[in-house]
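Hi R.,

Here's the chain you asked about this morning:
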Amino acid sequence: MRRRQFLNLLGGAASFPVGALAQQAAIPVVGIVSGGSANTSARFVTAFRKGLAETGYVENQNVTVEYHWLEGLQEALPALMTDLVRRQVAVIATPTFTPAALAAKAATATIPIVFAVSESPVRLGLVASLARPGGNATGFNILNQEVTTKRLRLLHDLIPKAVRIGLLVNPANVSITEVMIRDVKEGAAAFQLQIQMLDATTVEEIDAAFASFARERPDALLVAPDSFFTSCRSQFAALTAREKIPASYAVRELVEAGGLMSYGSDLADAFRQVGSYTGQILKGKKAAELPVVQSTKFQLVINLKTAQQLDIEVPAPMLATADDVIE
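And here is the predicted structure, written out as tokens:
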């Protein structure tokens, strides 16, 4: 199954209609590379198109957009980036998928790259500085890692009796995982929490992580920000409901699917920002001259129905400060 996905991914890129490109040589091609799934990304695509429209670009009219949904299949990245560079696409966009941003940066020093990452793009080596990127990459810093301690505090406030917290990370996302583990351990010490590490890079491994609860059950679950995890939100909703375990996420999509709570940046806004910067670059601006935009708005989303199913009473002050309450 995984091999078929890989071949289909490359086949889709390689079979892009060359004749159509020849006939419409003046129309730029943008390659979007995401770790998520096409089936769960409609809101993100709409947001990206909105960003493009802000700069006067409309898909299939004056710009062609190729969507590459990897569904966690990161081993496809080198070949995919090689193909995009070979065909000299106008822009490579990697919204909310750090491995793709790093792969694009490794593949080309000339084609503009527009990213949205949750770690420091300077530390990742994507840009020289936030104000002056200085190379062929720029974009949006989601800052999910910077709010990890607050996510822990909110989880502690909501479930004060919770002592053992499961932390689910995707080890394939090396940079996110390293920072997440560090920040969670620091925050856990402040709240006297015990951290139980859980890894998953595939759908099957997510199932296995939840199966392990029969042996060592955490009181609550903290899920690291990861585009593949976001695409698996229905799976998370089903598993947390089955195990009756409260779970905290970085993005609202998982709460809308049935998760308990989330705190973090709005991914749809990140896609919009990436779309806007992509359009500006298509108009002639240089990535080196476009400063990296940082998140300024963070959302607390609570699923009250899920809280009731888990027999959790959400404190009134938390409900009052929530940006959205799903009933």
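One quick note: The chain has two domains: 2-143+267-294, 145-264+299-326.

Cheers,
M.
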